Amino acid sequence: MKNRSRNFYLIPYVIWIALFVIAPLFLVLYYSFFNIEGEFTLSNYQKFFTPVYLKMTFSSFWYAFLITLFTLLIAYPTAYLLTKTKHKQLWLLLIIVPSWINLLLKAYAFLGIFGTYGAANSILEVIGIGSQQILFTDFSFIFVSVYIFLPFMILPIFNALDELNPSLLYASSDLGASQWTTFTRVIFPLTLDGVKAGCQIVFIPALSLFMLTRLIAGNRVITLGTAIEQHFLVTQDWGMGSTIAVFLILAMVLIMIFTGTRKKGVL
Amino acid sequence: MKKNSILSKVYLVLIFFILYGPIFYLIFYSFNSGGTMYQFEGFTLNWYRELFQDTRLLTIVLNTVIIALLSATVSTILGVAGALAILYARKRRVKNTLLSLNNVLIVSPDVIIGASFLILFTMIGIKLGFISVLLAHIAFSVPIVVLMVLPKLEEMSESMIYAALDLGASRFDVLTKVILPYITPGIFAGFFMALTYSLDDFAVTFFVTGNGFTTLSVEIYSLARRGVSLNINALSALLFVFTMLLVVGYYFITKKSEKPRGMGVRQ
């Protein structure tokens, strides 16, 4: 490029980065060293390593793991079967559309469906199991989360499967591989990037979506996100909230490295 | 083989049923005169009538739309500048750094963005309310606009710019008469995404909104926490129709330009 004039587009953009990307991250780190009285201290970090917080962190990760696992188990066959359909782009679009509906409304729908007299219990009655307490249980929390995250997982896997060169599959079956061997040795390894991207998109929000736990799980499930919200908006202990946020950011960075996708800007 | 294809059809139908069931369940009960989400007593439009008579709610809708339009406009301008800045960055390292910083807000969980912006606004002394919500929405929409515009800029041939310069165009002419018209589809897509991000956002707004100011998502959350009320159903039916219109609109915008690569799921 021969234009020597200064890149003045940088000015507004860099101001935005400094103000809304870098400054907030540092402020979170900064606040994590202050207790509720505003004194500089490491006690928040000490408190984080007490059993109460460690247990919460562990259970938050456990829930996020389960949610990601179930989402993957349901999404992979869906994506696979979608690539086999005739108008696959249209079907994919129809899978994506629900993700455009406000998340709170979807959660709210389950308040009705899983409620004491809701559709789920009516079905259980008819089958003969009898009505159960569904809302405010682990099951409802995981089910609704999987429901909400499903499109986010299907899309990257679908794209990976769609890019797969079909001649590889013919080669594999010509060489005598069974369908299962072809899947485990050819298809799955080649779509691993899509799987990783999907897991990343699901796992991080699963750690942090506080509104779902509040609406669907009552106050039974406390995730990292719920704890941060609690500290910032209810108990006003910003220091402790920031400390948890620091650990959530660390977890996020680790997950990003672990699932490292080379493609940039693919959501 | 035949059995297989029936099985896979059943699976896909089931997935679509699960994805759309709750949404239509919500809409169906918005016409229920019974006032609950489990016993359909009779058809009524009362909930919709009530909705349109609720001036408080209408004000909230208006607030939400104003915030969305303003934040999408400003963030589109900033985002286009950002994309140009990244394009013109001469050093590879600068380019990559800018891109990584750009993506921080996209991968960050909403709680982190919300909490850190809350600290930021309190530190700078911005009163929580309209301004803080607007700034937050602008801030988190900028990176998505950049990601929508940048591919368009990169596919533009440099010789077009050189031709314009050779023919005596000033740098400003090059921008307004060559570059901007070329990337218009990207700008529209970016604006649209920013609009929907803003309309849909709950978590960040929840953190940075004060007592006096509410957007629709926050209002839905507080209503839903109080339990089922069919007003929300009516509201969600309207939002569903509105979202569908947006999706169709967006689909045509991207279809006109090129392959629908921007058609992504939303975080």
UniProtKB/TrEMBL annotation, chain A:
Classification via Pfam families: BPD_transp_1 (PF00528)
Gene3D superfamilies to which the protein is assigned, alphabetical: MetI-like
Subcellular location(s) of the protein: Cell membrane
TM stretches of this protein: 7-33, 61-83, 90-114, 134-158, 197-218, 238-258
Keywords: Cell membrane, Membrane, Transmembrane, Transmembrane helix, Transport
Membrane topology: Multi-pass membrane protein
Domain of life: Bacteria
Domain ABC transmembrane type-1: start-end pairs: 57-259
Flavoprotein among keywords: no
Family: Belongs to the binding-protein-dependent transport system permease family. CysTW subfamily.
PANTHER family: INNER MEMBRANE ABC TRANSPORTER PERMEASE PROTEIN YDCU-RELATED, INNER MEMBRANE ABC TRANSPORTER PERMEASE PROTEIN YDCU-RELATED-RELATED
Name the record gives this protein: ABC transporter permease
Organism name: Cytobacillus gottheilii
